[in-house]
UniProtKB/TrEMBL annotation:
<dbReference type="InterPro" id="IPR016055">
    <property type="entry name" value="A-D-PHexomutase_a/b/a-I/II/III"/>
</dbReference>
<keyword id="KW-0413">Isomerase</keyword>
<dbReference type="InterPro" id="IPR005841">
    <property type="entry name" value="Alpha-D-phosphohexomutase_SF"/>
</dbReference>
<dbReference type="InterPro" id="IPR005843">
    <property type="entry name" value="A-D-PHexomutase_C"/>
</dbReference>
<feature type="domain" description="Alpha-D-phosphohexomutase alpha/beta/alpha">
    <location>
        <begin position="7"/>
        <end position="132"/>
    </location>
</feature>
<dbReference type="Pfam" id="PF02880">
    <property type="entry name" value="PGM_PMM_III"/>
</dbReference>
<dbReference type="InterPro" id="IPR005844">
    <property type="entry name" value="A-D-PHexomutase_a/b/a-I"/>
</dbReference>
<dbReference type="InterPro" id="IPR005845">
    <property type="entry name" value="A-D-PHexomutase_a/b/a-II"/>
</dbReference>
<feature type="domain" description="Alpha-D-phosphohexomutase alpha/beta/alpha">
    <location>
        <begin position="153"/>
        <end position="252"/>
    </location>
</feature>
<feature type="domain" description="Alpha-D-phosphohexomutase C-terminal">
    <location>
        <begin position="371"/>
        <end position="445"/>
    </location>
</feature>
<dbReference type="Pfam" id="PF00408">
    <property type="entry name" value="PGM_PMM_IV"/>
</dbReference>
<dbReference type="GO" id="GO:0046872">
    <property type="term" value="F:metal ion binding"/>
</dbReference>
<dbReference type="GO" id="GO:0005975">
    <property type="term" value="P:carbohydrate metabolic process"/>
</dbReference>
<protein>
    <submittedName>
        <fullName>Phosphomannomutase</fullName>
    </submittedName>
</protein>
<dbReference type="GO" id="GO:0016868">
    <property type="term" value="F:intramolecular phosphotransferase activity"/>
</dbReference>
<comment type="similarity">
    <text>Belongs to the phosphohexose mutase family.</text>
</comment>
<dbReference type="InterPro" id="IPR036900">
    <property type="entry name" value="A-D-PHexomutase_C_sf"/>
</dbReference>
């Protein structure tokens, strides 16, 4: 029996091409996915990595071998694949390793309507099917493959959700990181009152300029410099598969994803007063405060798209945001789309005269540490030691919804979570000012790192 524990993750399939992931395995995954979801068809898209077209073709061969047809949309961002799944009401497969280096690739799967397929919602079943090397279903007529270009339809749909036609002219630097933003941005943002200054729009899965991971500060240095150089109003950076978007203001300073979450939430609540807005537990406390102040219902969840999408489906939430710059919209089949979040920020900026730094200042109320990783031998023992230390603190409120979250009396709080894939503990801290963040950081890390 195959052991696929190294490539089947909580939310997707991912590994090093040629070592962990090859055409044979992907063909078997395609067949297993077809058996899981049934007909009539599966929609398939892929990113710009050298290995993506071949792996997507192998997956299609597996799907069609089970009598299920394929709609191939070719080059796509992940949110474009979600658009295809939602608008066509078909299950989907996106070939991408997002921000990972060039040697990696992977598959993000969804059911019809862009409903997520994670470990608890089908991925474990597919893994078991493939590991058992289940034989192909006998006597089936192979499915067909249809190629369809949905880029313009995707762009048109997004432009029905956020109208940018009447905003004041803006100069916008966009760093696509040689990823799929270079494919989608011209179609979505072209022809609007936007002077787009493109950076690294050439599709290149070898990422010659920098990693397509804007969460790492070193990867937005070029964007920050260009914004200052050309006097832009705003800078946008997309990750490799363009489902996440990071924002910098006119000074080149990063706008925290929590501030973007709060800004978009206010706009969505203006359309639907009293709506529910989801935020994960690492998002700034400014988000639930601002949602409540604007008459909305904030709802706190665990980290991860499967939890957020499940809560959105259960509660009818209008919007959800994460600290990692994933933004989820009910109007987009509850799927995450960095492009739509960027359009909301552009609409807010272009709909008034203040610079972005002033516009977003009201959404940034606290100081934050960012994610601090510590390599540890025993994650649970270290977390238990931290919990024990803070349980004795007067007024401390502790919960374990996702890792360990400790709320202190002085409005400081931290979350400590184990990595699912590495021997790491991830620490996030927020407090009223930088000094309080540093003090709390030193206290927690003193226990974690011993």
């Amino acid at each position: 029996m195959r052991d696929l524990s190294g490539v089947f993750k909580a939310y997707d399939i991912r590994g090093i091409v040629g070592e962990q992931l090859d055409a044979e395995l992907v063909r078997d995954v395609g067949a297993a996915f077809a058996r899981l979801v049934g007909g009539p068809a599966v929609v398939i898209g892929h990113d710009m990595r050298d290995s993506s077209p071949g792996l997507a073709q192998a997956f299609a061969e597996g799907v069609t071998s089970e009598g299920v047809s394929v709609v191939s949309i070719g080059l796509a961002s992940t949110d474009m694949l979600y658009y295809a799944s939602g608008s066509l009401n078909l299950p989907g497969a996106m070939f991408t390793a997002s921000h990972n280096p060039a040697k990696y690739n992977g598959i993000k799967l969804c059911r019809a309507g862009a409903a997520p397929v994670g470990e608890d919602t089908g991925l474990a079943d597919i893994r078991a099917d493939v590991e058992a090397q289940r034989p192909a279903t006998e006597g089936v007529t192979p499915g067909t493959v249809e190629e369809r270009d949905l880029l313009s339809a995707y762009a048109e749909h997004l432009r029905t959700l956020v109208d940018l036609s009447g905003i004041r002219p803006l100069k916008v630097v966009v760093d696509a990181g040689n990823g799929m933003g270079g494919h989608t941005v011209p179609s979505v943002l072209g022809g609007l009152p936007l002077d787009i200054v493109p950076m690294y729009f050439e599709l290149d899965g070898n990422f010659p300029n920098h990693e397509a991971n804007p969460l790492d500060p070193k990867n937005i240095v070029d964007l920050q410099a260009k914004v200052r150089e050309v006097g832009a109003d705003i800078g946008l950076a997309f990750d490799g598969d363009a489902d996440r978007c990071f924002v910098v203001d006119e000074n080149g300073d990063p706008v925290p994803p929590s501030a973007v979450t709060a800004l978009v939430a206010v706009r969505e609540l203006a359309k639907e007063p009293g709506g529910t807005v989801i935020h994960n537990l690492i998002t700034s406390h400014s988000v639930p405060e601002i949602v409540a102040e604007h008459g909305g219902k904030p709802l706190r969840t665990r980290v991860g798209h499967s939890f957020i999408k499940a809560e959105m489906a259960k509660t009818g939430a209008i919007f959800g945001g994460e600290h990692s710059a994933h933004y989820y919209f009910r109007d987009f089949w509850r799927a995450d789309t960095g492009m739509l979040a960027a359009m909301h920020v552009l609409a807010a900026l272009g709909g008034q005269d203040e610079p972005l730094s002033e516009l977003t200042a009201e959404f940034t109320r606290y100081a934050a540490s960012g994610e601090i990783n510590s390599t540890v031998d025993d994650q649970q023992a270290r977390m238990a030691a931290v919990k024990s230390a803070f349980e004795r603190e007067d007024g401390a409120v502790i919960d374990e919804l996702d890792g360990l979250t400790v709320q202190l009396r002085d409005k400081s709080w931290f979350n400590l979570r184990p990595s699912n894939t590495e021997p790491l503990l991830r620490l996030n801290i927020e407090a009223p000012d930088e000094t309080m963040v540093a003090d709390l950081r030193d206290r927690v890390l003193g226990i974690v790192r011993g």
